[in-house]
Amino acid sequence: MEHLVFQLQAPLSSWGEPAVGEFRGTGDAPTQSAVVGLLGAALGLDRGDEAAHVALRDGYGIAVALLSPGSLLRDYHTAQVPSRAHLKGRPRATRRQELQVPRHDLGTILSTRDYRQNAASLVALQPRPDAPHALGGLAQALRTPQFTLYLGRKSCAPGAPLWPQVIEAESAWVAFQQYVERFEAARQKATMLEPLPPIRRITFDDHVVAGLPRDLTVSRKDRLIRRRGWQFGDRNEHIALVPSAPPPSTVAMET
After folding, report:
1. pLDDT category of residue 109 using cuts at 50, 70 and 90
2. Which of 114, 125, 156, 254 has the least C-beta neighbours within 10 A?
3. In the predicted model, is pLDDT for residue 255 greater than 50?
């Protein structure tokens, strides 16, 4: 079974959780909708092309290996915005156009936005029968994207190349392990690269051959419904914890 595996590392990333009021939280690993959006940007899909985004959503099983959750950064955010009444019937293709109203008609919105600092994950795609793109084509798109790639928000640029690899493996877990081995071999030839942290857990949807037994299943509201309307539905996300290796001293004592 073919897999497309790539890495996501950045000084800042933000993986949207359901927004309640003025709070914009983040998960510690990429959401399904974020991966779909990333692929769409790499392919150059227009945001209004709902059918193409749905095809990406339904065409691949997605697994995520968490390498490092990073640390939480909370930003108190303010922004000037005109009222809805003043925006009605006005073209606003840019932020500048949005603010071209009299100053006394501008208000201020407050929000708290969470980010992850120095988080790292691997993503694996398993094609389903109706996959709209071959994995090799997706890999090339991630190497030379049509639109700028970012990790959750436009301020969150990737901190390292995504280094996509097409890997033949019996499961997502085996594909992740082979990716780590390939990365380490490449790192040995380019000593400036940092080693990948060990995998802590993998998460996967119903359409993935994971290769590890699930320890927990949760409901996550990150299933893309309408890209332009920012509408998302629930899906099952399965979690498999990866046992940590025993320390060297323990191994020595046992042998």
Report:
1. confident
2. 254
3. no
